[in-house]
């Protein structure tokens, strides 16, 4: 078996709100847990002749009083349980202690100022600072902690005009994907015009100093948090004019209808590149020559069979990143006059490892994933290899980006035991120096990560990185979190987590397999976990659990499985298929109703990975067979389950989690608790305030350890409940 040691020097009528003795459904646990009553409504949908019951569909109405009261009732039970866990406050205290260190982001130059983000330690949101000269005392430019009293309004984007004299920043309120954009004079820091509203899934890309491009949908009828949105449009906002005058650039005509549309202006302001997608994978690419008075829309690639984008240009020479005829990606060049694929020429060819390139200082930086670990090379604009960059160790490197005239750039390096450190890189000399190393109350020298390869059900080799204290005893009794994702071409590469550091301190094991469906080995690896091959992902995860048990890292009594979003689906499917395999299940903001996911917000865009129940009888049958909501079985003993979601999640609407919780609470045959923790004024995760994150992790770790039998924290003693 191949093993790699990763160096530690290196990231009405409804829910009853009655008191427990009046509750209709009563299930006792060690903490006298009693569930609320959740009403059932006779709702049935016909799918290709199969009648599918959906008794909790009423919970999809996020604006109803009934749903609101159900949320309150569930939270009352959940927090009543969590608050009685004897060591929860100890966990919260330690999380706060370890979280309380200064965190600084990589600096970047805009106009006369150098900007950077910083969090003093426990601030809910990072603050944006700036200074003109290196020796100047930094001044606050933007403080998102003042956006709202409770810290739930966050900064979600910041973009500067070419001369740096104007800035546009976007904010998210309560975690929603809907944004507002505010324009500032950077010298005075005063707002210069009315706030732009109702913007979603959008960047901000300036055209010189005149204005910027952004994307949005028409506000949907019904709930803005759950109603379907499927026609994205690109707009241009000219500074000094009202949003009502903004020009629609793309997406207004029926033939231009796409779910995701984005616009990006080249650094020289000559070209606008437009991406248009109906799914999270595959899309069209168009361009406009902004140097012309009436620029025409020109097609670069007119189908959605590939993932393709323009990374840079040098005059009319375009540099394009694509997986066309290259599942691991390559960079090609073409003249803007005739940019279609038949004219493409290889610039940096495909290799056996997945390519993720960036540019800075007149060079290309190609990051390759080698078994989920970073390798970075530097090329000039003629495609000549300049050097391989020496990284601090085995882990994840990122951020190799800067403007073309830059002499230096900054990159970060991290792994599972090493907090993210920022390095300053001399672009011409190829030398790195530490710019900022966090001073954190955690000693990485006590821990190590080990990469192993195990076989899945069909014999496919899957890599997994296991992190724990050095010299850990493999006795099958180590509390273990198995974390996974497995979808949407997303790669899980080694990175440090402050919260997971607390888990490791408690003698915990943290294991992350690189499941199929992810992007670790390119498009073929991704496709092997999509649609009617999705079961591969669950099989990979189950095999990871079995590996940990067989090799005595843990046992089923000390194993928890965790994942969020698509990873929440992973946990939901795994625990319903193999409820005997783990002690605790922790699905977060998960996609749990696979028959209706595509009817909410932008969910239809996930069809590349999932398929939909309307595609065909075969696709419906496949989804129905693993959909977590539809596969909770009466009389089954499910593991202790803590479902987490946010009431403002308009990415994966909380109804997925609501319905899954209701099914589990009704059908749980064992004594293990099934709880749902519903964060209010929170969304899918981005922008969540620090205080909220710490509270959530204290609850998650407390719930996990308590249900593994610990009366005290493992590093306190090893007493186990009878």
TrEMBL record:
<keyword id="KW-0732">Signal</keyword>
<keyword id="KW-0720">Serine protease</keyword>
<feature type="domain" description="Peptidase S9 prolyl oligopeptidase catalytic">
    <location>
        <begin position="494"/>
        <end position="709"/>
    </location>
</feature>
<dbReference type="GO" id="GO:0005829">
    <property type="term" value="C:cytosol"/>
</dbReference>
<dbReference type="InterPro" id="IPR002471">
    <property type="entry name" value="Pept_S9_AS"/>
</dbReference>
<dbReference type="GO" id="GO:0070012">
    <property type="term" value="F:oligopeptidase activity"/>
</dbReference>
<comment type="similarity">
    <text>Belongs to the peptidase S9A family.</text>
</comment>
<feature type="domain" description="Peptidase S9A N-terminal">
    <location>
        <begin position="36"/>
        <end position="437"/>
    </location>
</feature>
<keyword id="KW-0378">Hydrolase</keyword>
<dbReference type="GO" id="GO:0006508">
    <property type="term" value="P:proteolysis"/>
</dbReference>
<dbReference type="InterPro" id="IPR051167">
    <property type="entry name" value="Prolyl_oligopep/macrocyclase"/>
</dbReference>
<dbReference type="InterPro" id="IPR002470">
    <property type="entry name" value="Peptidase_S9A"/>
</dbReference>
<dbReference type="InterPro" id="IPR001375">
    <property type="entry name" value="Peptidase_S9_cat"/>
</dbReference>
<dbReference type="GO" id="GO:0004252">
    <property type="term" value="F:serine-type endopeptidase activity"/>
</dbReference>
<dbReference type="Pfam" id="PF02897">
    <property type="entry name" value="Peptidase_S9_N"/>
</dbReference>
<dbReference type="GO" id="GO:0042597">
    <property type="term" value="C:periplasmic space"/>
</dbReference>
<protein>
    <recommendedName>
        <fullName>prolyl oligopeptidase</fullName>
        <ecNumber>3.4.21.26</ecNumber>
    </recommendedName>
</protein>
<keyword id="KW-0574">Periplasm</keyword>
<comment type="function">
    <text>Cleaves peptide bonds on the C-terminal side of prolyl residues within peptides that are up to approximately 30 amino acids long. Has an absolute requirement for an X-Pro bond in the trans configuration immediately preceding the Pro-Y scissible bond.</text>
</comment>
<dbReference type="InterPro" id="IPR023302">
    <property type="entry name" value="Pept_S9A_N"/>
</dbReference>
<dbReference type="Pfam" id="PF00326">
    <property type="entry name" value="Peptidase_S9"/>
</dbReference>
<dbReference type="InterPro" id="IPR029058">
    <property type="entry name" value="AB_hydrolase_fold"/>
</dbReference>
<keyword id="KW-0645">Protease</keyword>
């Amino acid at each position: 078996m191949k093993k790699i040691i990763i160096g530690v020097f290196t990231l009405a009528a409804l829910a009853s709100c009655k008191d427990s003795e009046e509750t209709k459904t009563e299930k006792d646990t060690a903490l006298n847990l009693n569930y609320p009553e959740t009403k059932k409504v006779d709702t049935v949908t016909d799918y290709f002749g199969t009648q599918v019951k959906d008794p909790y569909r009423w919970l999809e109405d996020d604006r109803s009083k009934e749903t609101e009261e159900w949320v309150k009732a569930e939270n009352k039970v959940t927090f009543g349980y969590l608050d009685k866990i004897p060591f929860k406050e100890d966990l919260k205290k330690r999380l706060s202690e370890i979280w309380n260190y200064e965190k600084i982001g990589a600096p970047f130059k805009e106009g006369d100022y150098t900007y950077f983000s910083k969090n003093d330690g426990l601030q809910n949101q990072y603050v944006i600072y700036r200074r003109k000269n290196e020796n100047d005392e930094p001044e606050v430019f933007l403080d998102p902690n003042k956006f709202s009293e409770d810290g739930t309004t966050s900064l979600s984007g910041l973009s500067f005009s070419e001369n740096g004299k104007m800035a546009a920043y976007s904010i998210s309120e309560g975690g929603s994907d809907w944004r507002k954009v505010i324009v500032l004079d950077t010298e005075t820091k005063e707002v210069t015009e009315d706030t732009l509203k109702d913007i979603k899934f959008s960047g901000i890309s300036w055209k010189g100093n005149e204005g910027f491009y952004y994307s949005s949908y028409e506000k949907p009828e019904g709930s803005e948090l759950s109603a379907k949105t499927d026609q994205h449009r690109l707009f241009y906002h000219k500074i000094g004019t009202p949003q009502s005058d903004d020009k629609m650039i793309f997406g207004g005509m029926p033939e231009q209808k796409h779910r995701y549309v984005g616009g990006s202006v080249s650094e020289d302001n000559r070209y606008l590149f437009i991406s248009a997608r109906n799914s999270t994978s595959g899309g069209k690419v168009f361009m406009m020559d902004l140097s012309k008075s009436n620029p025409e829309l020109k097609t670069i690639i007119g189908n959605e069979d590939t993932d393709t984008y323009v990374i840079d240009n040098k005059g009319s020479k375009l540099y394009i990143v694509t997986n066309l005829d290259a599942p691991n990606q390559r960079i090609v060049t073409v003249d803007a006059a005739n940019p279609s694929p038949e004219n493409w020429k290889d610039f940096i060819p495909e290799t056996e490892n997945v390519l993720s390139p960036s540019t800075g200082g007149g060079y290309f930086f190609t990051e390759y994933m080698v078994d989920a670990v970073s390798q970075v090379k530097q090329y000039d604009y003629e495609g000549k290899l300049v050097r391989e960059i020496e990284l601090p160790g085995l882990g994840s490197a990122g951020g190799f980006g800067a403007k073309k005239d830059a002499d230096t750039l900054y990159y970060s390096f991290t792994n599972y035991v090493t907090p993210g450190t920022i390095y300053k890189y001399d672009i011409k000399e190829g030398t790195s120096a530490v710019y900022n190393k966090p001073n954190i109350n955690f000693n990485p020298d006590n821990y190590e990560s080990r990469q192993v390869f195990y076989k899945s059900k069909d014999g496919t080799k899957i890599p997994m990185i296991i992190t724990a204290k050095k010299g850990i005893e493999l006795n099958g009794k180590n509390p273990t979190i198995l974390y996974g994702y497995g979808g949407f071409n997303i790669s899980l590469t080694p990175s440090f987590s402050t919260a997971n550091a607390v888990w490791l301190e408690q003698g915990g094991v943290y294991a992350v397999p690189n499941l199929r469906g992810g992007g670790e080995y390119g498009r073929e690896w991704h496709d092997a976990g999509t649609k009617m091959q999705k079961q591969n992902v669950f099989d990979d995860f189950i095999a990871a659990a079995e590996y940990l048990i067989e090799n005595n890292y843990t046992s089923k009594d000390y194993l928890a499985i965790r994942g969020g979003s698509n990873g929440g689906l992973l946990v939901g499917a795994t625990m319903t298929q193999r409820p005997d395999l783990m002690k605790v299940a922790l699905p977060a903001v998960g996609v749990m109703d696979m028959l209706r996911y595509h009817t909410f917000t932008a969910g239809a865009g996930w069809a590349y990975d999932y398929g939909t129940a309307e595609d065909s009888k075969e696709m419906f049958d496949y989804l129905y067979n693993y959909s977590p909501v539809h596969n909770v079985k009466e009389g089954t003993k499910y593991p202790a389950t803590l479902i987490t979601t946010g009431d403002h999640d308009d990415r994966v609407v909380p109804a997925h989690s609501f319905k899954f919780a209701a099914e589990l609470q009704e059908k749980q045959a064992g004594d293990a608790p099934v709880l749902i923790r519903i964060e209010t004024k929170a969304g899918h995760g981005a922008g969540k305030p620090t205080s909220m994150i710490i509270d959530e992790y204290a609850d998650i770790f407390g719930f996990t350890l308590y249900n593994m039998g610990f009366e005290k924290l493992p590093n306190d003693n090893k007493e186990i409940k009878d």
